[in-house]
Amino acid sequence: MSQNTTDQFFNNSVLGHPAGLFVLFFTEMWERFSFYGMRSLLILFLTTSFADGGWEWTRENASALFGSYVGLVYLSTMMGGYFADKVIGFRWAVVVGAVLMTLGHASMAVETEFSIYLGLLLLVFGNGFFKPNMTSIISEMYKDRPEKKDGAYTLFYMGVNAGAFFGILLCGYLGEKVGWSYGFGLAGIFMFFGMLQFWLSQNIFGDIGLKPNKESVAKAAALDTDKRNPFTSWQLVLIAISSILGLLWILNDPASKISGGKVNVFGFLGENGNSIAIVSALALFIILLVYRFTQYSKITREKLIAVTFFAFLTIFFWAIFEQSPNSLTIFANDYTNRILEGNWSVVFLVMNSLITILPLTIISYVLYLMFKRTFKDYALANIILSVSFVIIWTIAIWMLAKDYYTAGYLDLSDDTLALLKIDKVTTALTEVPATWFSTLNSLFIITLAPLFSKWWESKYNPSANLKYGIGMGLLALGMACIAFGANGIEAGAKTASVSMIWLILVYLFHTMAELCISPVGLSYVSKLVPARMIAFMFGVWYLAVAIGMKGAGMFGENIDKIADEHGLSYFFWMLTIISLVVALFSIAMTPVIKKLMHGVR
To answer: Cellular component GO terms, alphabetically (predicted)?
Structure first.
């Protein structure tokens, strides 16, 4: 094989991949641990009573803040990507993002009104710098080994899902069972470990991700031979106006509700000021998008229309899928019977032990393999990473011991209980945490992803529209399960004891829906969009995701209004019907979109 610029990374490999990939693996794992761990607690913390340490907000206000937070997380990636490309480089962007997120989680652990808002703001900007630049480093590392890239991303996303799983499992457990600040604080501690490990190992990436200089900029410009279609002054003005209106709206929407109308930037527009602002912003952006499309050749324009169609469908997918940390968590907490007795208690304890210990063992083995390869050159980074795993093992074993003790299957002396900081119980009880159900998504992804990958590689690989149709259909099936389960809950009821099986089914079907839609969408952006427009269209895509995230919050805001009038089941049947309509629309549009894609599969 002829030598190339990235051969150096493969000289020191782990599982057939550069050791640097596993530095990114563990950095991303701890970042996802912190992100999903905090996110799983946010709605519960905001809506829990003062007596139990929460803020006792209405579900409407909590969902409004949640929707704006997750929406801004995705919007901020455009800012972070720009600064990384043009100003500070990928590496500094990752470090700046990690530092901001560490400070954000630490701020949330204080639990004052100011510190929670400050923490969310820091997390938004931190995610913006961090999120888009990890994959950029992988892309550069494998640019001369495209045949290895799929395997690299598969390993990387195993780290993503492992982090999400353990973040929800452990931060959620500590937040619900011990104290909210412990859950928020744990998320920050592991973000800090991830940042230190990355910073101390960064030389493993060679020149990748360094701050841009005149030489690197000139080299990149020489490689980019695509014809440019720069934004004119009036187009930049439209972008500025729509961006400002959109940002003000996404901030003002929760602020006006939480303050009872005392804070309302668009109050001068009347009662519907918020709606007027966002509709105006979207109208201006659509005008710009349509005009830009007219400036390209027929084939390019039609491919861009196809991408925009999928982006439109993506809005509905995320708006319904992201009910997981919102209305589905509320359903788990307030309407689900989470108390297990007898054999079911044993089944849960054993299953929970297996899904905790086995993944930790596998990931610890990967850490050992990396340790052998990199300890000589990056000793301190490896020691810090090892310490983080000692802590995570300790917390996991403590959690399992506490569960077995409270369920009556483990005898502990008073001295041992005091040492382990476990409260003494007199009545055996197994109660599944409300956040535990969210871990099923990551667990099902790890289990089912290989099967879906084989399907996509087979001769039965469906078209893009059919994949979206199947995905939205599975989303509808999941919501139908929860709607059916909630059928007996009376209108206006604030609590109930529905079987857990309905939540397990909804996460199973929704994970299958995610595997049909989430990886496929970004793939079609890269396949259909010309290289010179990739940044702009990725911006459009992430804008669609952000709208979907905010839409999830807006759906959640209405859960009480709908449940009080028609019953909780009605709310979930509405989401079922929306999903089904989008699924049928996607399938019906197959001939049109297939023509617009010009042979791209």
So the answer is: plasma membrane
